[in-house]
């Protein structure tokens, strides 16, 4: 028999899912729904004698102020606007255009060459940033207009950008893995190494998919009609034009790798480097700085607003005992160890439709991790499988952060429907990758053992 | 050149909610919010520079000496804290800025096909019942939060960190006041359409 | 009798041995001794209240109670730092002696009453490590310019001996140390450090934890909520917390030997900081503490009381016990 507050948790989730389809901004739906459930809970407990668990006074919800303050102090998230700034500046500098042009020349004569280029840039960005919003925005602004100009399938274009842009959360450095390590008191290094191979594998699988599908359906990624034959000169030109952005990405990666600065600071170094490149190309004028600053503000704002709304929502859900409710349901499952893992991954997949990785990592992962440890599975393996599964949360509607970011920056001619249909094959590839890591744990465990000499606890 | 579609100024009145009649009162409020947003957008440029100085400071003694004149004996900590101070002020003021410009994400799978009147009703009810109560609630509770910081003369717990914690905490109030203003402007704009037209 | 159901946020994850699992133990004991009438719902850091926001939340009545390390409150209530841990100060057992029998508790109750909080001493653990270093510290010169991460009073002390104290956020510590952005960092008990994997990226663990000879945690209860409780409930909570102190002390002490042996097996050099470095650090400590005392009357009052007890207790501490390096058999 369900307790009243457990029933409230279910209604809370359901109302949120229904209300976001009104088209009202999702951040304010999250905040507003949370607010009204506090009203219901308080008056319910006071006048109708409902058991609302911990949600018995306005004071419980006023914690939102402390949570906003904590979000303000989150110095790791400083990297978010900086990578956005870097992406926009790179775009304005003209370097990005030349980069895409060079990729067009290099891969252009291939079927789906631009989409392959997006995968490559996606992997490179993933290795330097780890912030999905910034990667998707950067990839979209870099490549979407070009792909549309070359009559690529809008769905393939949208799918490959959204999917490649999410690689950053898995391929280290990764904020998600840092948070998971923090939640479970595990070594960040183990998780970084563990996620490296599955992350790269995912990128390679995307590329394979693009190659296969554009060969089966040439209309989806046609080579440009005017594609010049590949000469040594074109290759040289292309390599030269790649030098600048490559140097920039190397500057970001090198800053981290050689220990000059933290990953967060590297984001600022990258943004500064992008400004230097713009200056080099004589594009760094007042107008450019102004535009990039405004767009950085706008992009950062919509991401942070959703963080804020999600924070209010999670606060209400936890005060209604939502997390204990889920944990309790899990513990009463009648399956074997592998079955329980599959159920956990299945829940993560379904939860990923409505929640983002952060909420899932913060609410759900700590609940299931002890169960998994008790079952005798290697925690590094489990967290990596789980992390690959959470990748799908970025791409699954209605709440898919990659889809939001993409929607925010693509031209109007790319409809929401195009985006939703476009990401379907990539979600399937992610599930394939989950399956591979599940069946072959060495994919996650080999590298940490090689690097740190000794498996994780 | 890439176009920032949907991110232009005043996009909400011209984009998702295109077709609303002009509303000078809403325009005036929105202009004010935009102005503050534009000024604080330069926090991001400043942030780039502060990070660069912070990184260089770790390796270049001359820069350390200059910074030490500004921030005291341990400028590294002050510079690191300045980073998240700028980030916090930047994103807080940017949220209402993005509200006016129509950058906040909507799930418009169904809604993009709604007639304008239905969209306007949703906007009216959503703003009145979801956004405004939330803003008011946060403001009511942010006030004592900031006041407390002033009373305790709160400073950074880290050695060499920045003082005057109430200043950065106040940005929560600034942000939600601006957000409330933007919400009221939006409410005026859709109410002007929903209620004035029917009378006419 | 009354029923109590509190959400109690904690400042350290319950998965961190000795540091984080004390309140879950206290909660369990309370539930048992009250026959299920007293329920503390332990809330992990950040899940409801941010780790550093426990004090504010309890003070303002946003939650009924919370559990935290008092050192976090240094920015708002400076004397809290001394209750959390005093550099070169008392160890866990000594602190308990001073707190319960030499006036420590009365002063704290008075100071925290101004913030609408009733603090209950509810956990004390063994010293932390002095820090993890990429190079072994053998002399004072190495300390100058050392890029070191340390929080609170410890940070001020390192700064004063010439280290360049860096503020690196928790989640980035591991990588910063691994990549050499930092030359060293302190974090917590060796067991906890081991859980976070610092031994993988820094091969020198220096002891002793001069900056934190004990780490004291308190259950903060909102004063309005506490005053309304019935006497048996108050007694059960206080008693469970006293059990929590004993539990934490024993648990922390129980685990460190094995973990040091494990570090050695993994190629970590575990060594004491050189005497001249320690002496220099102690001078810096005295200066930092006196400076803080000059600025805050409560801080001075508490520090004086602690020093008075330490002076009185010193003879017993030195003579009453075998020297620490006395052979076992
Ligand atoms: Na990454
Ligand atoms: Na999703």
Describe the structure.
The complex is a heterotrimer of chains A (457), B (200) and C (329). Chain A is an all-alpha fold and 457 residues long. In chain A, 77% of the residues lie in helices and 0% in strands. In chain B, helix 4 packs across helix 5. By secondary structure, chain C is an alpha/beta fold. In chain C, strand 1, helix 1 and strand 2 form a beta-alpha-beta unit. The chains are: A mainly alpha (457), B mainly alpha (200), C alpha/beta (329). The complex binds sodium ion (2 copies). The site of one sodium ion has 6 residues of chain A, from helix 16.
Helicity of chain A, as a percent range: over 70%
What integer value in Å does the Rg of chain C equal?
20 Å
Bound molecules: sodium ion
Proportion of residues in helical segments of chain C: 40-55%
Radius of gyration of chain A: 23 Å
Described by the principal axes of the CA atoms, the overall outline of chain A is globular
Structural class of chain C, by secondary structure, is alpha/beta
Structure summary, number of beta strands of chain C: 11
Class of secondary structure makeup of chain A: mainly alpha
Biggest sheet strand line-up of chain C: 7-6-8-5-9-11
Helix/strand order of chain A, N-terminal first: HHHHHHHHHHHHHHHHHHHHH
Biggest sheet features of chain C: 6 strands, mixed
Q: Oligomeric state of the chains? A: heterotrimer
Q: Give the low-confidence spans of chain C.
A: none
Instruction: Return the average pLDDT of chain C rounded to an integer.
Output: 92
Strand content of chain C: 15-25%
Binned strand content of chain A: under 5%
């Amino acid at each position: 028999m369900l307790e009243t507050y457990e029933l409230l948790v279910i209604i809370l989730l359901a109302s949120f899912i229904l209300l976001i389809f009104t088209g009202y901004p999702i951040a304010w739906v999250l905040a507003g729904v949370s607010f009204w459930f506090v009203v219901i809970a308080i008056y319910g407990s006071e006048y109708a004698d409902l058991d609302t668990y911990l949600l018995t006074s306005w004071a419980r919800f006023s914690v939102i102020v402390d949570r906003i303050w904590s979000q303000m102090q989150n110095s790791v998230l400083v990297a978010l606007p900086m990578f956005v700034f870097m992406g926009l500046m790179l775009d304005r500098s003209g370097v990005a255009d030349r980069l895409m042009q060079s990729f067009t020349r290099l891969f252009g004569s291939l079927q789906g060459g631009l989409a392959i280029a997006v995968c490559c840039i996606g992997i490179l960005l993933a290795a330097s940033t780890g912030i999905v919003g910034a990667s998707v925005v950067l990839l979209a602004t870099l490549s979407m207009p070009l792909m549309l100009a070359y009559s690529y399938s809008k769905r393939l274009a949208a799918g490959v950008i959204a999917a490649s842009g999410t690689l950053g959360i898995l391929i280290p450095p990764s904020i998600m893995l840092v948070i998971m390590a923090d939640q479970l008191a595990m070594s960040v290094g183990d998780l970084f190494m563990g996620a490296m191979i599955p992350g790269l594998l995912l990128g390679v699988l995307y590329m394979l998919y693009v190659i296969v599908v554009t060969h089966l359906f040439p209309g989806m990624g046609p080579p440009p009609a005017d594609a010049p034959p590949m000469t040594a000169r074109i290759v040289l030109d292309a390599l030269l034009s790649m030098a600048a952005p490559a140097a920039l990405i190397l500057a970001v990666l090198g800053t981290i790798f050689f220990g000059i600065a933290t990953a967060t600071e590297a984001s600022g170094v990258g943004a500064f480097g992008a400004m230097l490149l713009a200056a080099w190309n004589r594009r760094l004028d007042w107008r450019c700085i102004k535009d990039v600053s405004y767009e950085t503000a706008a992009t950062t704002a919509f991401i942070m607003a959703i963080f804020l709304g999600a924070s209010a929502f999670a606060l209400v859900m936890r005060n209604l005992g939502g997390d204990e409710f889920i944990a309790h349901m899990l513990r009463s499952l009648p399956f074997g160890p592998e079955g329980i893992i599959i159920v956990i991954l299945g829940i993560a997949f379904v939860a990923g439709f409505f929640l983002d990785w952060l909420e899932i990592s913060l609410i759900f992962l700590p609940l299931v991790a002890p169960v998994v440890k008790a079952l005798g599975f290697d925690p590094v393996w489990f967290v990596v499988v789980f992390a690959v599964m959470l990748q799908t949360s970025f791409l699954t509607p209605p709440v898919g952060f990659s889809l939001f970011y993409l929607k925010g920056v693509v031209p109007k001619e790319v409809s929401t429907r195009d985006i939703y249909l476009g990401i379907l094959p990539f979600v399937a590839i992610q599930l394939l990758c989950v399956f591979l890591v599940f069946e072959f744990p060495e994919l996650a465990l080999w590298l940490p053992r090689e690097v740190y000499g000794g498996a994780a606890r | 050149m890439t176009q920032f579609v949907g991110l232009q100024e005043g996009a909400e009145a011209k984009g998702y909610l295109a077709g609303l009649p002009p509303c000078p009162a809403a325009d005036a409020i929105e202009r004010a919010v935009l102005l503050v947003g534009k000024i604080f957008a330069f926090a991001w440029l400043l942030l780039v520079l502060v990070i660069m100085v912070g990184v260089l400071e770790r390796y270049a003694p001359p820069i350390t000496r200059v910074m030490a004149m500004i921030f005291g004996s341990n400028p590294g900590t002050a510079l690191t804290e300045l980073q998240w101070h700028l980030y916090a002020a930047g994103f807080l003021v940017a949220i209402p800025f993005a509200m006016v410009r129509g950058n906040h994400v909507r799930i418009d799978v169904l809604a993009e096909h709604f007639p304008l009147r239905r969209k306007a009703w949703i906007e009216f009810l959503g703003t009145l019942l979801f956004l405004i109560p939330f803003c008011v609630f946060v403001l009511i509770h942010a006030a004592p939060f900031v006041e407390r910081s002033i009373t305790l003369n709160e400073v950074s717990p880290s050695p060499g960190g920045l003082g005057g914690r109430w200043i950065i905490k106040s940005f929560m109030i600034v942000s939600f006041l601006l957000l409330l203003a933007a919400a009221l402007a939006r409410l005026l704009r859709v109410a002007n359409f929903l209620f004035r037209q029917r009378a006419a | 009798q009354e029923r109590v159901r509190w959400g109690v946020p904690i400042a350290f994850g319950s998965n961190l041995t000795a540091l984080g699992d004390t309140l879950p133990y206290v909660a369990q004991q309370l539930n048992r001794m009250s026959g299920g009438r007293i329920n503390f719902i332990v809330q992990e850091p950040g899940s409801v209240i941010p780790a550093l926001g426990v004090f504010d939340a309890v003070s303002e009545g946003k939650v009924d109670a919370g559990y935290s390390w008092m050192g976090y409150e240094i920015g708002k209530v400076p004397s809290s730092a001394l209750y959390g841990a005093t550099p070169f100060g008392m160890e866990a057992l000594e602190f308990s002696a001073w707190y319960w029998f030499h006036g420590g508790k009365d002063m704290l109750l008075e100071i925290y009453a101004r913030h609408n909080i009733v603090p209950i001493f509810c956990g004390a653990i063994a010293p932390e490590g002095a820090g993890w270093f990429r190079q072994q510290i053998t002399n004072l010169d190495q300390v100058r310019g050392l890029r070191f991460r340390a929080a609170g009073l410890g940070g001020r002390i390192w700064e004063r001996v010439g280290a360049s104290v860096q503020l690196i956020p928790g989640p980035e510590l591991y990588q910063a140390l691994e990549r050499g952005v930092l030359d060293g960092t302190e974090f917590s008990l060796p067991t906890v450090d081991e859980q976070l994997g610092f031994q993988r990226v820094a091969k020198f663990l220096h002891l002793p934890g001069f900056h934190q000879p004990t780490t004291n945690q308190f259950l903060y209860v909102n004063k309005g909520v506490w005053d309304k409780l019935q006497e048996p409930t108050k007694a059960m909570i206080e008693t469970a917390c006293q059990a929590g102190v004993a539990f934490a002390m024993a648990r922390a002490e129980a685990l460190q030997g094995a973990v040091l042996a494990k570090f050695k097996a993994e190629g970590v050099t575990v060594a004491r900081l050189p005497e001249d470095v320690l002496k220099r650090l102690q001078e810096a400590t005295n200066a930092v503490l006196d400076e803080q005392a000059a600025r805050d009357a409560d801080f001075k009052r508490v520090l004086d009381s602690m020093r008075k007890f330490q002076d009185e207790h010193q003879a017993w501490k030195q003579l009453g016990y075998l020297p620490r390096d006395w052979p076992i058999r």
